[in-house]
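FAQ
Q: What does a multi-component entry look like?
A: The components come first, one per line:
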Amino acid sequence: MNYDSYPEIKPGRKTIKRIYIAVMLFVVGRAIQAACRVDETVKKEFKNLKDGFAFALGVHPHGPWMIVGRDAKGRARYLGWNPEGKRIPLTMSIKSVESAILVFTFQESTSVAFARNRFVVDGDLIDALAVVRVLDLVEVYLLPKLIASLAVKRYPKWSELSPVRKHVGRIVIYTRTLLGF
Amino acid sequence: MQSPNFYEFLGRPKMISGKRALEQIPVEMEGYGAGRPLVLIQGGPGSRGPADAITRALYDSSLVIGALYDGAIAGSTSGIANELAGLFRARKCDSIIAIGGGALVDVAKCVNMEVTEKKPARTLAGEGRIARELKPMVLVPVALVSGNEAANRAFIDGLACISDFLSPDVVVIDHRMTSTAETGPTLYSGLIALAHALEAAISVSANPMIDAYAYASLRLLCEHLPVAVKKPSDKKSSVAVANAAALGAIAFSNAPAGMAHHLAEALAGGTGINPGICMGLLVQALLKARLAEKKGIREELCLALAGPEMFSAAPVSGRAKAALGAIDGMFADLGGMMPGSLKELGVTQERLDEAVREAVKASPSKLSEKECRAVIGRAWNGK
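Then the predicted structure of the entire assembly, as tokens:
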């Protein structure tokens, strides 16, 4: 057998898909920061987390990543895309780029992806569930109902999130996301 | 369901099935501490498809394919196992991904034995001769399967190696691989799975775990095999049949090989007829024989074969008949691919006698020659 006929193959890159995921993570990260200043539920979720808490959400093993932390006042703060040198108690990594594409193109909701074991959680599971709840709410604000219904476990009823609150919140969150404050 | 007095069950391997399942391989491999697999793919026409799919699935991961072997593998022999073990060592691989079925998977397991135990796989033939965990191995079923791929055995030079360590660590079922099969291999694989699951469920060592695997396999086959055979490119059905084959193999590896299995192997060896077709006809005849002898078929098995609607519509005394009717119906739905009897396949009565003798000789569980004759006679007549 001529061993040279059977080559070594180094893994390639799915550049376009990675760029798409990076953009989505950037938008969602800044939207979490904005939603924490607009929505009471998100604010409360972050208040309940420990001081110095931060989480990274991204794709295993090479990223892209999104890091969001809790500041001293209990508010969410987007900390960028690079986890290096940061203290991150909770890392939620999606097992592959393709699994991340399923989540970020809303073919699979975050909760279904969790249930299908597409996420690896390194850290406190209770905190991870709080993050999933926050992500669900942020998606409700960012996306039209038709798409958000696919992305979240249960779309909130009128009694839980009135249309006025939702639309006003959406405008403010989008503005803050774009301007980054 | 009866409470068992005693049983053993080996529940390996881990199964990953469905959308984007191939892309889970790198994380699974990392979990085993592996990062440089030897990838084995059955060569020949159409082999580029699976090779491209697996290469793309490993993009953006830390896995480097040490070597991708896509040459033809005609059978599991010491020669090819030894050469591939050499390739494994030369490229410093630490794990194996086998994409295919039958001889290719046997060879992959033998390579794994050689590189772990550092002795020829042939010398490890027999039961329980492997003393440690082998290198991590992922199996991706593609088309024709022999029913042993997900099981705890491998064959080399016609000898069987049986060990708990021979089960693959992970079986990954993805429609990008399964829907490339053709009609014939899909049918043969489905029939082998049917025979394995059914024989495990009616064997003396049946237990709740075997039942769970066997019933799931049977239900999947009854619902999806006809569609998969008529249209092998159907993603949902091809994945269902691949799942059924893996589940059937796990059930079968925990039970002694039954009469239909031994008779089919003996018949196929002498006549060249596909073992899957023989197993299908024989297992149908075996059920008919049991029914005729009023030996009874357990209620749960009837439910698995007939499905909830047919099962609940049938009177209690007629449920076994409904189960048999379901198998007959499934065979009829196979679009004329399934012959009605062994006679139609040109098997002579003299060959039946030889097959019975060979099967009785090959069976470690002392099959009854009389019962074998009755079953093979039914399969020959198609009654």
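Q: Is there any commentary attached?
A: Sometimes. For this entry: The two ends of chain A are 63 Å apart (CA to CA).
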